[in-house]
Amino acid sequence: MRKVFYLILTGLALGILLAPGRGSDTWQKITDCLDDLKSKTKDTINDLVGGAKKMAEKGKKGAEKAANEW
Question: Is the distance from CB of 26 to CB of 16 less than 8 angstroms?
Fold first, then answer.
């Protein structure tokens, strides 16, 4: 897994060094891409947390129902 990470970083570094555009343009593209990734990650985490809360509430209601029937 570490090797894959290092290969990705190396590829990114080479891509930046060999890019045909201006450095400022390249950095802007990288920044935009990272902002998009950050936003998507936040959305995914919020979806997961929301789903977990719903499941916990459903489990709590089921446990309360089972306890009342006991």
Answer: yes
> What phi, psi does 20 have (nearest 5°)?
-75, -15
Q: Locate 26 and state its tokens.
A: 């390249």
Q: What does the block give as tokens for 36?
A: 């998009």
Q: Which two tokens stand for residue 67?
A: 């306890």
- For residue 19, give the nearest of 8, 34, 29 by alpha carbon: 29
Q: Indicate the domain borders of the chain.
A: 23-70
Spatial contact of 19 and 26, defined as CB atoms under 8 Å apart:
yes
Q: Mean pLDDT for each 10-residue chunk of the chain (70 residues)?
A: 84 78 80 89 95 94 86
